[in-house]
8-amino-3,8-dideoxy-alpha-D-manno-octulosonate transaminase (Desulfofustis limnaeus), 400 residues
Amino acid sequence: MPGYEVIGAEERQQIMEVLATGVLFRYEFADQRQGVYKVREFEQAFADYTGAAHAQAVTSGTAALKVALRALGVGPGDEVITQGFTFVATWEAILEVGAIPVFAEIDQTLTMDPDDLSRKITDKTACIVPVHMLGAAADIEKIVAIAGQAGIPVLEDSAQAAGCRIGGQHVGTFGACGTFSFDPVKTLTTGEGGMIITNDKGLWQDMSEYHDHGHDHAPNPGGRGGEGRRFIGDNYRMMELQGAIGLAQLAKLDDMVATQRAHKTRLKEALAALPGVSFRHQPDEAGDSATFLAFSLGEEKHRVRVAEVLRDQGAPAICFADNTWHFYPRWEHLLAGSTKAARGWPFAEPGGRRRVVYAPDALPKSVELMKRTLVYPIQLRMSEERLQQMEQAIGKAASL
Ligand SMILES: *Cc1c(COP(=O)(O)O)cnc(C)c1O
């Protein structure tokens, strides 16, 4: 799965180049930094890698979502459609900018169901956020077509899918913009960090300014203190050490993906022996970043028995229906509208009127699917012995 498994000499070298200058800030310090601009270089390298025209580095994948939503003009009064199987950060960001998350079902792709998306579009829908979950792509061309007909921008939450492509085209480049996370368990990690990519120069400019208190970054005699501002912003700036680590990690990304694919193929071949097994649908299997392997059984009862055997044989798999961080019915704080704001925002207006109520049983199709589905995270360092042990465990589950 993650880049933390391969941190080594390249990352150390990159960090030392930053420490040698003593400049940790991505802007200014022109005299002191000896031409070292790691965050800027990382943005350029990430844009080149994904084929996007522009990239904006930020402090996290959550920050990337917030900055992108702000730049797209999303705010109070708006609805944003995402999916009920994602990390909590996706809808936290939507609530944080003042909009209301609307949850679509997932389908066999384990990402947004385009048909349910169509049903959930209203005249308040300001953005659509499909999530390329578990390293593989959503049915993004279909989703972008539906959104395009309705005139709504698509923000691809690609936090888990760096290195994933469809027909050679990177996820994150199909919609108006795409966001990535470099947190400690993502394929490419900088400890904490995020990136937004886009082909829209105006959108990138807005992101660049918003993420840095509104600074327009235009050269002027007053330096940073003399820069102009067109609107209020916030601070989501990435620091040079993160940019440095990102450069080293990005150079390893395609090798990491290749290793993950090899491991995934081995396990998938073994899992094919499970009676009634099916694998998630992918628009382009060859472009899978292969960070996870998801498989579904015919019914929940069978899934439970398979999970028990795999666990007892030392090869436990995740059931996301039970996972409290990634699945709608398990988000009790969202369902209850729990918040630190004394007047109930963002679930209630300052006057106390409830803005939104989330029903626990709102996504029956997703629940049915997730209860039948198990997931293996794919590690980079899997020994031949470990792979064989997992294959044997799977063999036992197959002969149930
Ligand atoms: C990890 C993740 C995020 C948030 O990224 P952070 O860098 O941890 O803030 C957002 N969306 C999804 C789908 C994620 O998996």
